[in-house]
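Limitations
The structure tokens in this dataset are predictions for the assembled complex, not deposited experimental models. Users should treat interface geometry with appropriate caution, especially where small molecules or nucleic acid strands are included. An illustrative entry is reproduced here so readers can see what is and is not provided.
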Amino acid sequence: MEKFELIVLGCGSAKPTTRHFPSSQVLNVRDKLFMIDCGEGTQLQYCRNKLSFNRLNHVFISHLHGDHMFGLPGLISTFNLLGRTAELHVHSPKGLEQMLKPLMDYCNYDMSYQVFFHEFDTNEPTMIFEDRTLTVTTIPLKHRVPTCGFLFREKEGLRHIRRDMIDAYEIPVAYINNIKAGADFVLPNGEVIANDRLTTPASKTHSYAYCSDTLYNPQIVEQLCCVDLLYHEATYAAEHEAKAQQHFHSTTLQAAQIAKDAQVKQLVIGHFSARYLDESALLEEAMSVFPNTLLAQENLSILLDD
Amino acid sequence: MEKFELIVLGCGSAKPTTRHFPSSQVLNVRDKLFMIDCGEGTQLQYCRNKLSFNRLNHVFISHLHGDHMFGLPGLISTFNLLGRTAELHVHSPKGLEQMLKPLMDYCNYDMSYQVFFHEFDTNEPTMIFEDRTLTVTTIPLKHRVPTCGFLFREKEGLRHIRRDMIDAYEIPVAYINNIKAGADFVLPNGEVIANDRLTTPASKTHSYAYCSDTLYNPQIVEQLCCVDLLYHEATYAAEHEAKAQQHFHSTTLQAAQIAKDAQVKQLVIGHFSARYLDESALLEEAMSVFPNTLLAQENLSILLDD
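Predicted assembly:
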């Protein structure tokens, strides 16, 4: 199974409450872990979810507000304490390295591993990460400071070999990779065996978009088109739309409208203001516009289907 | 009642676990709150214990290791978010302000209140705070970086007026403060009424000493003499004494020995290494040397008697 799973570590907003941790999530793509935002307490939540530190090499920070990044010094120090040797890559808007440097210089003067800061421009969608299986592209958002969401998109994988057919035609191992990539096979007698007789289609690819924090911004709809899963902040209830606008945040209805317009498959709302003791009312509002909506909560895991 | 209460917010050590938060405590002295250390997640624990942010004006940081101070950026930012206007005073060894400055400059460019950093020398016991009711004195400790514990000592209060005697002798209000301070009263006929007929003794004063992190250090015994409550780190079990020494920490037996030699009334041990899943064994070890020992745990409150 090609795993594609979102784990919510924290979905509160800046004001601390006893009900939420500040923003952090982990996306598990085929057992590589990608962290998105890193509020205070993230490393505790990470442990609580029994996630492996060894599988985490990339952290993506949406913007430089404390509730999205104050967990980084602790995380970086803990890795050092554990004797990590693998590089850690931290992607963020400009300014993070400068901001953390004196703290890191003092606390980790004898670092066992290297941290690389990659700072991105927040004006245009930009592919900031790519590996064999995945790309990560920024989603420019509108907030009080430079902010981007992130679009994680799995690459089309290789087709799956039909072992029975490979055996039947006695196809040598050396040809397998080409066949997985779509090549036909030519038998010694010249007969061409079409690829779709030797393989089944590649696994479904998945996509996940993270949008926090942002003013209601229909400009992102096109980029979000048809993603499998969208996390969109819904800091405020519909009745507090003016307050949402004032603080460059979104309401439940606005988050749901983005999901609807972008025709995403599923929506998760989060980044709840501390004022709402009962968040089920927020969920109901969002569902009135986009029924397939979930309420984020700490330790929630969403496993996307194959 | 003159309240003197210790509340433990976190008593783990640097490596994160799901069982503990890193170091932080609050001492409540007559409803003024004093924070001691501020590891990651402190503000969440503070809220969980329903402590008032308005009553906290002083934070004491023992040393500049992450598990004792990575909660500060979040705490300072939250106060700003809440529109705090009262000054906040942060007492620490040298270097903290320099370390936090770029983070604070970015995150709190429009601060609603002022933070004052007071950096102390860690070589000699020094009184670093004094108000009407209390003094705070540093306790030089031996750790890998400059480190001090803190001795909180209530000042002797005023004697309590005996209302019945004041009424019987018809003593005017203007004399009451002097009588509270110990003065006798002279009746119009020249008769002297001794103070101890007009008052009962002042309330008992309390003292609390916080010692984390430190190598076993008998030099502190004299300064700790006869305190009501001592928190001493016991990062390691007795069997790991060599490891304790190597990392400049103490064992259970060493913590208890300090308590015994200083003739303190009660000992609380904490700063437990993540390796010990069952801390009751640590408690048993300490109690074998100093029976009146408690195991620290999150949200533990110790109210000292009048």
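Some entries come with short summary sentences. For this one: Residues 15 and 129 of chain B are 31 Å apart (CA to CA).
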